[in-house]
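stuck on whats below:

***
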Amino acid sequence: MSDTVLNVTDLGVDFDVKGQSVRVLSGVSFSLDRGETLGIIGESGCGKSMTALALLRMIPSPPGRISSGEVWMNGEDLLKLPKRQINRLRGKQISMIFQEPMTSLNPVYTIGNQLTETIQQHLSVTKSEALERAIEILRLVQIPAPERRIKEYPHQLSGGMRQRVMIAMALVCDPNVLIADEPTTALDVTVQAQIFDLLKEIQQRNRTSIVLITHDFGAVSAMADRVIVMYAGYKIEEGTLDEVRNNPVHPYTQGLLRSMLELKPDSDGFRETLPEIPGSVPDLRHRQPGCPFGPRCASATAKCREMPPTFDLGPRRSVMCWLAADGKTA
């Protein structure tokens, strides 16, 4: 029996912008195994969060729509399920930690009300059983004095505490797949490390599969088994963490890695060097022909005026770059 819990094929998303149909996600495909963490990384606007929303059928319509693809889980294509059925599945089998807990949590309801509502929506339990389960999950995510915290409102908690509540809400029904969209945004580095340790501990306990969405290669290095690099709505490279980190093929991936903080000895002690990728993410309303990264790529050739295919380099190892055609790297 396959250990794959999620299989995504040719996922595409379009948005209507000022009378024009704009492709914001183009043919994204990947799979996720039980107990595995898949990191999805790229700049803002590259399609990371849009991929997550598409998996959960949460693309705002209008103006957006899922224009192509299949998302298979438990033998069913999630994109074809009736709305009532997908609502039952969300939060129970596949769940999401949103990146800003202060706007994701309802400010006028207590933490306990919000947790018990989620529990009773998906599980056949009484109100007292739901409250007991809510206290139990808060204790699991290491919130002290959960019996007291459950009566408090979001504004009474610190940023790190609110993020733990978001994790608790996502995990309270024991989902098979957890999507974590920038789960440590705006948290200090100490709290970030605590959140990642917590996610790893819960994953080991329940064999939860995690999709980690981030712009930070450091976060990917701390959590992921495999990595997908996205750019302008395309999956441009995929591989294990070691393959992508130690042997990046796509020039964009190489640029991301070079732009990570590096300290080098200097005459005055240490010098911080942060090489940047020139240019900016293209305007998706005015796509140029060829490779989407071509205008920013120092290795671009005339061939790059044609859209490159995705080249398979090994099991679940691929790159969308003409350099791979001849076994070259940038």
